[in-house]
Give the backbone structure.
Amino acid sequence: MTPTTLLWTILVPAIAAVLVALVPKGVKLVRELIALAAAGVSLYLGFALFAVKNLEWRLPWLGGGVDFELRLFHFSSFILLGLAGFLILIALYSTVKMKDHPMSGSTISMCSSRPPWPTARSWPTISSPCSSSGKASWSRSMA
């Protein structure tokens, strides 16, 4: 296990996030496979690093004795393994559970006829963003 493995625990999820963002929403299977693969690699790295007692990676940065340093101790490797396990569970759950969801792959908005704040007589109220025109309109209630 080389010290640069510590850097991969940061880079793998970041690269996967960029790839998922670049893949179109219509290709849902590819997005899910990227997420599951990244979660699997993170879990593998978590197990591999859990077997190591102490690991240190240092990069000179900013000069003058200031270094960018990643250090792994036994407790931090335990936390890393727990996070990687939780990550794979979330990826599996979201892949299986959201398969037939009607809004999967899109953002969810609140469609409500009431504004999220309490209204008074002269306060402006907003109509539902899910109205037939598709545009929110402001009106004054003078009831």
